[in-house]
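Um, can you check?
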Amino acid sequence: MRDGLSLTVDEVAKRLNWSSSKLSRIENARIGVRLSDVRLLLELYGVDEGHLGELLALTQAATRPGWWLDFRDDIFKGLADYIAHEDEAERAYVYESQLVPGLLQTPSYARAIIASGGVVQPTSPRTVERRMELRMRRQRVLDKADPLRLSVLLDESALLRNVGGAEVMNGQLRQLAEWSRRPNVDLRILPLERMREPVISESFTLMSFPVAYQTELGDVLFLDNIYTSEFRDDATVHIYRLTWDRLLSSALSAEDSQDLVLRTAHTKWQIYGQTPTS
């Protein structure tokens, strides 16, 4: 339909004030689509009223909401969009400067982080549990038939930061070491004593996607802040990919990273009576 009007993806996206990435994913059925978005597209393409209602009815019947929409009342702005991309991604590159990434968190660690937000914005115990359940549900992307390939660059400070107490931290670091043994998970620690360039404090995630219907989908970038995730699919993505590569050059090997995680669990967060493991 778009081809018949000689409109490019960029031209349509600009007219609708969308990103080109969003339009490409809609056209290739890589993300769910709202009826309001379909209506905007059909009106732009000049579909007459007689067919408009029929096509919208078909769209409504075919729409299958993502599982995360069951948590729509409990999540922050932008998170649903992030999870939708995460669910479709082939690879994810996560840099975390403060905390263990959500995909590798234990329930106790996740609960402690989520509950801590109540200091700024009061949160009910039910909402804390719901958000924790959502975070655990997201981890299934690492277990599916064609699992997400996850690469993580984690600042060593995250291993030392007290989240929930010694028992929670000990359990989290031990589980983190277990995750790192999976063939689809590559964990690298950025040691505090090693100089690195560039020096950045913000966390970010880069995602890449499989080819769909002979169409190559571009990488996307998410920047985290206190209340939402900022989505980018422009030239900024390339800058952050270069940043990832430079940071990776300062990280420990996979084996040394695993050793550091376990050593920190045994020394910094040792639980009385617990037998150290390797």
About this structure: The beta strands are 91-96, 149-155, 185-190, 204-208, 220-224, 229-232. Residues 3 and 216 are 18 Å apart (CA to CA). The mean pLDDT is 85.
